Amino acid sequence: MSDDVRELVDRCLRGDQSAMLQLVDTHRGQVFGLCYRMLRHRQDAEDVTQESFVRALKSLHRWDSEREFLPWLLAIAGNRCRTLLSTRKRQPAATSLVEQVSDKAHEHAAAKNLAEEVELALETLREEYRQAFLLFHQHELSYQEISEALDCPLGTVKTWVHRARRELIARLAQRGVVQEFKNEVRRV
Amino acid sequence: MKCDEFESHLDEILDERRRPEWDAQLREHSACCPRCRDLASAYGVLLEGFRSLKMPECPADMSTRVLESHLARPRLALPAKAALPAAAAAALFSTAAAVLVAVFLTRDGRREQVAFVSPPISQPAVAQAKVKQIEQIKFDLEQWKKVPLVGAVFASAADNDKSTDPYEELAKGTGRSLANVVLRMPGVAVPRGVRPLEPVYGPEGVGVWPTHMSDELRPVTESVTETFDLILDTLPVTFWASNTRDS
Residue B101 burial (CB < 10 Å; 0-12/13-18/19+)? Predict the structure, then answer.
């Protein structure tokens, strides 16, 4: 683990506000990236990013300094995202119509490029698959780190990532982005 | 290589973040299996598309917002990070010390001198006191049964007009108003704030002790706690409670 991060955390624990600012600045891109990909809503992603950092600062004393800092931080952010997503499911009317239209207007239209197709496909994944896929492919965490961060068995994480990839491929094939396979993609 | 093996190997390659097209085994199978070739190609397209995803910038003032929010939030008094290890170390040290002492004392044949039983601190003393108290209460109760209140009151108030109400007679006997007369209950200590009077002797010469409230206590006690204490001390609740605890 980077000694810089450990030192930064130590300073934060001593109440050093400049260290807190630095800690957030160092990781805000990655936390926001995960939140945005999970929530697909910029304002929500900003709010959850902020909430995640506040929570992280509050419980910084619980971080095991023998482990990497980023997986721990991303796990907090991922949990916050999933909480918000479950709230959205319970209260569909809570999100205003304007926001829904502005963020998802292109959902049913033909995507203009590959990136948009992948983005749409990502949205169809189950939350745990998406989180595991993003932590592995976007943040390049190891399976071990994801397993520790999400507090679930390593084999489960691996299965989630494999299933996420297969479902994304199937979705892209449905949309005609990639070759439709004669046989269904093997279930993991 | 079969198609199933191809897919498993493809997963391994992707798990190791390697490029499928650089793997000889995958290339060999792909050359003769269009389906697997398309599958490998689809994965390539997926990851390429994923890498090209655009990400909006995180607001630059995020750190300031976080800090403001963090400082504004009331913080719970959590134990400091170093406190727990220190407490754990202290517990570990004391346990280790106890084990060491035990081993030292037992290793050279002096086992019979070692007593691992906790010293009898005050349990017998407490029990004896409780037995003594209960015996006293029993004795008092027996005495109380022998001495009718009316008789006691009549004996003390022989010169006053008699009535059928023993409390009223007792008030007359002590020269106090009825509201201020407190009867001493058998087996219960004198309540706080209550001054005992001279005992009143019954026909068999056994005394009862009527008491009255002190001036400081009137008209009521000064706090709920004191009132509660008075009730507890005045009524035979303590006797009941001590027996209940024992059972």
Answer: exposed
